[in-house]
Amino acid sequence: MKRVALVRTLKGVVVFLAVLAAIFYGFVFPQLIRDMGAVDFSWLVTPAIVAVSISALPIVVALVLFWGICTDIGRDNSFCRRNAQRLSGIGFCAMADTAYCVVGTVTIFAITGGHPGVLLVATAAILVGLAIALAAFLLSHLVLKAAELKDENDLTI
Questions:
Q1: What phi-psi label fits residue 80: left (phi over 0), alpha (psi between -120 and 50 degrees) or beta?
Q2: Rounded CA gap, 78 and 67, in Å?
Q3: What share of the chain is helix, strand, coil (3-state, %, to 5)?
Q4: Full residue range of the structural domain in which residue 17 is found
Q5: Distance (Å, rounded) from C-alpha 101 to C-alpha 127?
Q6: What is d(CA 69, CA 62) in angstroms, rounded to the nearest whole number?
């Protein structure tokens, strides 16, 4: 795949994920929260919607950082320190969102007594968040090493 096609594909994926996140955070999650809290926990519906909406912030930041990486790839500057920092930032966003998910899950279980379905979904979200953070930190390290090698090679020519 050529660089231009790769960048267009990656940016298309970013736009797709942003639209998907907007749909889920704007419509799906609030409706699920309303349905779950309609009977016994109606007083928790608004705080829960606000709490879930806050969890979208690290996702937005990570998508913006990834857009910057795609832009640098388009400029044929894939292996640079700035991209290593962006990947590290994505890793921190994933860790922050994962920690927020853990706190939210514990809070929900403390207040409501818990539901096995909520625990299953939260565990999956936590594992995916940790996997994304691990991959981002690993890629950050590798991009930084590649950037150092590139700088070294540029000096010898």
A1: beta
A2: 12
A3: 90, 0, 10
A4: 3-156
A5: 11
A6: 11
Domain count, the chain: 1
- How far apart CA 128 and CA 125 sit, in angstroms, is 5
Where do runs of H (alpha helix) occur along 40-115? 45-54, 56-74, 81-112
Distance CA 136, CA 40 (A): 40
Name the nearest CA neighbour of 90 among 125, 52, 63, 71. Answer: 63
What pTM, to 2 d.p., does this model score? 0.89
Give the angle subtended at the CA of 51 by the CAs of 126 and 68, to the nearest 5°: 65
* CB distance 56 to 100 below 8 Å: no
pLDDT tens digits along 13-56: 999 999 999 999 999 989 888 887 666 777 878 888 899 999 99
Contact 44, 60 (CB under 8 A): no
